[in-house]
Design goal:
Chain lengths: 466, 466
């Protein structure tokens, strides 16, 4: 009868302390989103297979978790197909691929971007544009699990769609700054513009291979420049183009110097010049903010996603080696695939798991994220806890989170419980206290004890806890 | 290229207003849970098929959404099985049933109770018992969608496990009272005890059919007493037993009268007498609370779930016809199936969707749940919004949720946007205001306008918004 207890690989349970820490991160992000006028939405965990497939590329499509049709799904399978497989004329992997659409019609969302695009198109008549939304929900990917990579993880997306004003980019950068300021994470916000990259690609004769070029550049985070060059050449791209491009995109200097360097290259590219203009406007806008984070133009920043068309943004925590903790950009046609073309939008996504790891590794979680209960009444059996229930109620009415230990077990064990759960104050009402209408308050951190009249217990605790 | 936009049947998108209302419900419930010392946990959306199957009964097992194995799942199918199906010696429905374990090993959770039991056993060494946890997460069921029944919906569960004290039941009832008090929903909390029901079953010679009896009684909500009797007889149970039982469980009167009526029946049943004792203790405990909700002993309350062994609880909203909005009870061996027997627990689950419907139908949502943004700056093109960005920032630093309309479109349309999004205050800084260093504040509810010095704008808004 006994079963093993295990959860699917790549997934996680979150106990109370991790939950409180995660909620601290989500609440911080959420409050900044709302401070800048973004509104919450949620979409279903499942989308139709049609909505999700063909949006992320073939490799990623394989990583989408499909949901088996309910009931008699076998009725949808193709007997002819199966016969060919049984008779080994076809490989099962190929059969698997062909069977999928016959036995599944739903899948778990892979990110929040495609469901958001679907949402906007489906609800276009109810939405007042520009639509400023945020969405904090889990996504699922059948990736190979490894350190820091999970099959279920939260994304925190914030997007404005239906406005091409650069004010939006500027405010998003200010919001990123505010989130990491509140979380106490020193951060560098790297920005670039895909139009500049497109112009540079044109200038070195790589205009037709722009998307592939950005995919290669996107790896600069993980591989060395010489490996990057090797990959470039390996793809069959001319070495000369790389030699030409590299000094521009890797130029060290001020943002102004980098723009000059790029501008020299972009005289003949209208797109490229527009990109430079956009960056200049954006830098001017954010100069009016008193940012704590460093903002830095990085002409090698590419972002691997095809739908970006303007500003791109990537954020790294300073002084710690970790992938990007936030990223995003401007897209001009995300909803086009669902029949609503030409709606420009811009957004960023915060990586809650990586932010958690940064706070954890730098010991930066505030102490308060380890505590739910503030007050615990020990249970001495005599008097019966029902006697002082009304006092506990009064403390709760004052807003203090309060427990009564339900069972009259050994006091040592009850104190151990308080310790394990990081409960700061313990109330002891034994026979003696009860006779005198008093209560003893024990500060679990300092070990100090004081005895106060029961009638003044709530006020005293409020004073202690503040 | 254009795709239809649709979501799987039985699932829902939540736009900003429903989201804010749902968050109002979740936050109210969560704050009461925490006030009584319950701690948050979360478990993965997916559990192993082994964890979920066989826990809910055969009918429910069919309603569990299974996840297709990634990659070459066809490799796991049984060619012999498929041959038999292709040659039509077996029906595809039967084949479907047999194929499931070959091509799926994970499924979406069906409730929060089984994952909680699995969590407790898996993390027993990290947990300090009694473990007071709450969990607010969606669950998925392949039920036929209908009004008020969805394939994805949230459950809000709160349980304490590892304590058999009736203090827990009492506090849960107080918490239910507090949740509905805060939400402004007049409610009746019906209680009963499965030990009393078990005793009554013994007394009328139905001891061996206790579980089936509770399943029939559980329908009393949906069908009339005469239909109930018909079903009873239809199951082959003696009519005499029903005739004997019915006057006891349907007795109208005070709780004390009901207990007397039942006690007369239970003289020879130890279990039954224990049930009466427990109810008496529980009623005494909750009498010390100043409850707003009505608590009522209902001897016909059965709850359809087999694992309940003591107190059972079900809550209905008064003055509105709606299924139960909260329910739960005491269980003595939930973790037994995972190899940790004899751990008693008690908990209840709040139905967020039904609570939403009650608040919606009675017009009881507070106005504040329709608003995110409090202040909107209109965009007159001149002065350029970048000029007054620092003023908007100052308002945000004061904690007011503020937007700047990003595009200089027609003012009429910008005001429409404010209206549609229920934004209460609009700031107008046109050429004239800018020259005079003033701003005009428009109250969107009253239409009133006033012009104030830019330097005092934040203070003025704080004063208006409070």
């Amino acid at each position: 009868m006994n079963q093993k207890t295990a959860i699917p690989k790549g997934t996680r349970d979150f106990g109370p302390v991790p939950m409180m820490r995660r909620n601290y991160i989500f609440n911080t992000i959420r409050s900044v989103f709302e401070l800048y006028g973004y509104q919450p939405i949620e979409t279903p965990a499942m989308e139709t297979l049609e909505t999700l497939t063909g949006k992320y590329g073939d490799e990623s499509d394989k990583l989408i978790f499909k949901i088996l049709n309910s009931g008699d799904f076998a009725g949808g399978m193709d007997p002819d197909l199966l016969s060919r497989w049984i008779n080994e004329s076809e490989k099962s992997a190929e059969i698997s691929r062909q069977i999928i659409p016959l036995i599944t019609e739903k899948a778990l969302r892979y990110d929040l971007t495609v469901p958001f695009a679907r949402f906007v198109v489906q609800h276009r008549d109810e939405i007042s544009f520009p639509f400023k939304r945020y969405q904090i929900q889990p996504v699922w990917r059948a990736d190979r699990p490894q350190k820091g990579r999970y099959r279920e993880f939260y994304q925190c997306d914030v997007d404005v769609i239906g406005s091409d004003s650069l004010l939006n980019e500027a405010e998003l950068i200010r919001m990123i700054d505010e989130v990491f300021r509140r979380l106490g994470i020193p951060a560098t916000i790297k920005i670039n513009n895909r139009k500049i990259l497109a112009g540079l690609a044109e200038a070195v004769g790589m205009g037709e291979h722009f998307q592939e070029m950005t995919l290669i550049l996107d790896k600069l985070d993980k591989i060395s420049p010489s490996d990057l060059k090797e990959e470039w050449i390996g793809k069959g791209f001319p070495e000369a183009a790389f030699t030409c491009l590299w000094p521009v995109i890797s130029h060290k200097g001020t943002d102004v110097e980098k723009m000059h360097k790029a501008s020299d290259f972009l005289v003949s590219s209208e797109t490229g010049r527009l990109g430079i203009e956009e960056i200049q406007t954006l830098l001017k806008l954010i100069s009016s903010f008193d940012l704590k984070a460093t903002v830095e133009l990085d002409l090698s920043l590419a972002r691997g996603l095809n739908y970006y068309t303007g500003a791109i943004i990537e954020v790294k925590a300073d002084r710690i080696s970790m992938g990007s903790i936030c990223g995003g950009g401007r897209y001009d046609d995300l909803t086009g695939i669902f029949g609503m073309p030409g709606i420009s939008g811009v957004g960023v996504s915060f990586g809650a798991d990586r932010i958690y790891d940064v706070l954890d590794q730098t010991g930066s979680f505030p102490e308060v994220t380890r505590t739910t209960t503030q007050v615990l009444f020990l249970n001495f059996k005599n008097p019966d806890p029902s006697e002082y229930l009304p006092f506990a109620e009064k403390i709760r009415q004052a807003g203090l989170r309060t427990e009564i230990f339900p069972d009259a077990i050994k006091i040592r064990k009850q104190l151990q419980y308080a310790d394990n759960n990081h409960i700061p104050f313990v109330i002891m009402i034994g026979d003696e206290e009860w006779l005198k209408s008093t209560a003893t308050i024990k500060n679990m951190l300092t070990g100090n004890q004081e005895t106060v009249p029961l009638a003044g217990l709530t006020e005293h605790l409020c004073h202690l806890i503040g």
